[in-house]
């Protein structure tokens, strides 16, 4: 794929800790991707509508409050409802090991718990976006 | 895991050739009398005895000899009942103050039954909807002896009214209770994200709490300015202090403009500073901060009384310094962070627990933190003498250099028009986010060392099994909503409507809203109902774009 990857970095829910989201946003931008950052306190509907309007290739969520399972489930359901279920979702934040398989089962394509190297995040996102392109 | 730590440049034999602190100060191999001369160190001007202006050494002549630090671990989760049990447990274990953690819906002024609160009720702190919740949370706590930090900002005015109401209900006069609501909205806009209303009305509300406390609750500290979270977001130690003082100046201006003199209220403005990073830089930071705050009050605002110039605060936490990797090592980090706070003369302290990169603390991890603080005071000698590092060629030189760096950072904020402008335009947010990114890259390149993260990374037996996860109980939300519905059924709804109407009128007329909040709280109006009134009158904050 020759196209530049366009990613939405979103802070869903109420959690206001955005240092991680901003660091990842800078890193993805430096890696050549086009990054849209939503800012804080986004509802699921707001995120889906931004994803639609901006026609992003992939959606990245940052969640530190522990509510990642609830939020991812809702987002993926909503994406299906509006016919955007081809948009892959990845999530980063404070995520216990045991929750990773649960998130994958919900349909989350990539999970980046705190401490994941930036290069690994960039590489995984590239792979996911490329796979989608090929499909 | 983020910012924090000095940069070391080594030669091929692993000898350190250069040390650069985060605030940009280069450290020499050794220090002597000529260094003090070079920075112009003069004992009477730069230090003074403990308890004497400019209070670099201590605000009290006796330091920890006259009083050990107040230990105030951040506590709260689930329902008010669970939180009350944990409060009592921590007090029974020797904790001397409380610091209430609220859940995210409460911090954002949403009731537990709000659709936006789903999945978050009672998760990272205690859920509070009405006065009934405070009645349960503070049942059996001696509010005349135990001071309470309320870690809440956008709706701090509501929580302060609620604290007064619960104290009165349990027979304590507002004169004797001591609350410390965090109540620092500018730092929320920079770092922690729990804002609701725009900058101007948010500052107005803070002014209301200061004015009201001065008259009604003299022992209460209505504001705790948090350099803490700005540091967590990527600020250097010098910026942490500089931005905090500039934020405090913004709040002072709001009250001075109402016709008061700093000697009447500024003693109620306290601070919360962070402790992770290089030990010496932190100690110098605290000492320089005490001095600069005193000078700021005296020279900029014309303070006459000593107490007005005291920098009082909680130095502690250190969350960003703790790692997810090899979590048990965070116990040791916490101990050294607490040492930095003690050597820096903290009046109040708390440290993050070793499992906080995973979850909120269990009783096990919270108690380790408390014991760490007790051990420093009672076992290893931190109470022996005031400001034990004073006179060290290195520490005094560094303290003077930190002072210079802090003043430079303060001047930069002045140049762009003060902290209000710096936050509204996203200037500070952009700056600290960029620094956090640069630091993170440096960490990944190995320029900064973090044990377990980029050095000695094999955990051996020190893995995640040391973390006993605090389990979130999803039934908390049901229980909390049931209790909220019960309150709504039993309260006088006509009285609630009247109080909310009065509150709205007062807010529109620009009156001090505190007496109206107190009335509404006592009528069992919900946090969400009162917040909605403010949202209608004040509107909501729009985050400036920083990309």
Keywords:
heterodimer; A: about 140 residues; alpha/beta; five-stranded parallel beta sheet; 5 helices; 5 strands; B: alpha/beta; TIM Barrel; four-stranded parallel beta sheet; three-stranded antiparallel beta sheet; 23 helices; about 50% helix
**Main pleated sheet of chain B:** 4 strands, parallel
Low-confidence stretches of chain B: none
Helix amount of chain A, in percent?
40-55%
CATH architecture name of chain B: Alpha-Beta Barrel
Please provide the ordered H/E string of secondary-structure elements of chain A: EHEHEHEHEH
Strand percent estimate of chain B: 5-15%
Number of helices of chain A: 5
Roughly what fraction of the amino acids of chain A lie in strands? 15-25%
Write down the overall mean pLDDT of chain B.
96
Query: Count the helices of chain B. How many?
Result: 23
The rounded distance between the terminal residues' Cα atoms of chain A is 11 Å
Q: Tell me the CATH topology of chain A.
A: Rossmann fold
Relative helix content of chain B: 40-55%
Structural class of chain A: alpha/beta
Described by the principal axes of the CA atoms, the overall outline of chain B is globular
Please characterize this protein's 3D structure:
The complex is a heterodimer of chains A (135) and B (547). Chain A has helices spanning 19-30, 44-54, 68-81, 99-106, 118-134, and strands spanning 6-10, 34-37, 58-63, 89-93, 110-113. Chain A starts with 5 loop residues before the first strand and ends with a helix. The mean pLDDT of chain A is 93. Helices cover 46% and strands 18% of the residues of chain A. Chain A has a single domain, classed as 3-Layer(aba) Sandwich (Rossmann fold). Chain B has a four-stranded parallel β-sheet. In chain B, strands 1-2-3 form a three-stranded antiparallel β-sheet, with no helix packed on it. In chain B, strands 9-10-11 form a three-stranded parallel β-sheet. The longest helix of chain B has 23 residues, at 393-415. The model of chain B has no long low-confidence stretch (mean pLDDT 96).
